[in-house]
# Entry
Amino acid sequence: MSLLDRDRLHLWHPYTQMKTASPPLPIVSASGVYLHTEDGRRILDGISSWWVNIHGHSHAALNAALAAQAARLEHVMFAGCTHPPAVDLADKLISLLPSGITRVFYSDNGSTAVEVAVKLAVQYWTNRAEPQRRTIVALHHAYHGDTVGAMSVSEDSIFTRAFTPLLFQVERAHAPYCYRCPLGLERRSCRIDCLSDLEQTLLLLGDSAAAVIVEPMLQGAGGMIVWPPEFLAGIRRLCDRFGVLLIADEVLTGFGRTGRMFACEHAEITPDIICLSKALTAGYLPLGATCTTEAVYDAFLSDDRSRTFFHGHSFTANPLACAVALASLDLFEQDDTLARVRRLEAQLRAGLEPLRGLPLVGDVRVIGGVGAIELGDAASDKSGTRGGYLDEIGPRLATAFLDRGLLLRPLGNVLYFMPPYVITEEETGWAIEQINEVLQGIIHDHPITRGANP
Ligand SMILES: Cc1ncc(COP(=O)(O)O)c(C=O)c1O
# Structure
C-alpha cells in the first residue's frame, strides 16, 4: 500500500474536510526551502510549513543541536525540576525581548501560550484583589489558536462557530484593516481613527477590563492584515491610561517574521505579556513561551498557596525543543538572519506591488518576510460580503501553484507568500513570477501551465 492509501485508512487531518479534500502531499524528506514527495516531486515551501520554519528544513546545525541534546537529556518534568536548555533559553529570550520582560513560562504551542496569557491576566487581577477585572478585549479579525480560551479571544468565524456555546464572552474592538477600513476612511488622510473604538470599549468596561490581546503589526489567519505602527503604539497608551494589561500574541510575528525580532519593536512598546511559539524552535518542535514583566510575576508571589499559577503541561520546557530554539537563536547571529529578512522584504515589495494594477487584485500588503495579495471581488466590491476563508478561489489557487511546484495555502481570497528566510533571491523571484502568471491566467482564463521550480 502507498503512503497515501495507509494515510486514508486511519488519519484525520487538521482543517481538512476529509470527504472532499484532495489527498495530502506525501512528504518523505525536506531540505532548505524544499519539500520532497514520495513520488519524486520537489516543492518549494512557500508558507514555511504553517509559518514555523525560518532557517530551512533539516538544517545541519539544528539537527546537531537536537541530536546532542537527545544524547544528554530528552525530557524531564518541569515542576520541581529544571535543566540547562530551559535556563539558557530563558536567559537568551530575555536578552532579546523588549526591555521590561523578565519572566518566561513555557508551554507546548501557540494556543497554549495564549491560554497561559489569558489565565495569567485574569488571575493577576484576582491576586491583586480586583477580581471584577476579568473581561478580555480582543480585536476583530483576530486569530489566537484553536483551544477553547484561544478561540474565545479569536474573531467569531467559521473556525469557531461550532463551539460558540463553549466560548467565554469577550469585548471586541476595531482592527486597523486599512483596505476594508471599518470607518470607511483612507490611510493617507486618517488619524488612526479606528483606535477610538478600543478607547470607547475600555471606557465602557471601566474597572471590569482585565487585558487587551492583540497580534501586533500583522493579523495572520484573519487575512494577513498589516497595521500602521501608530495603532500599536496607541493600544499601549490606552492600556496604560486604563490600567489594563496588554497581551501581545507574537506566535506568528516573533523571531523576525515582520522584519524585526519582535513585532512590538515597530512601535517601540513593551507589552505586559508576550506569547511566543512557531519559529521559536525554527519549526522543529512544538514549544510555547509566555513571557511577562516582573510586575505580573510579582502578583503571584505569596505565602498563600491559592495565589499559585496552577497551570502546566507534561512537556513544559521540553529540553529537545529548548536546545533547538537556542541553536536557532545562534543562527540569527551567525547568519545575520534579520538582514536576510530585510532583503526578502525589499524583494517582495518590488515584486508584488506592481500586481496591484491587476484587475483581480484588491490590495497588496508586505511586511518583513510576508507578502500578501488580497483579491478583491474583481476589484469592485469592498463590501466584505464575499471573500473570507471559504472563498472558493483559495483552493483553486492552491492547486494551480502546487502544479508548478509551489506550496501556498491561501486564506480564502487572501493569497500570501511566507517562505523560510533562507530562500534565495532567485527562488523568491521564481515564486513571484508564479504568482504573477497564475493571477494573469485567472484573469485571462488561461489553462494554468506547468513550470518547474528553480
Ligand atoms: C497569532 C497566532 N496565535 C496563536 C496561534 C496558535 O498556534 P498553534 O497553532 O501552535 O496552536 C497561531 C497559529 O497560527 C497564530 O497565528
Q: What stands out?
A: The chain is about 35% helix and 15% strand. The pocket of pyridoxal-5'-phosphate is lined by residues 109-111, 114, 143-145, 215, 220-221, 249, 251-252, 277 (CB under 6 Å).
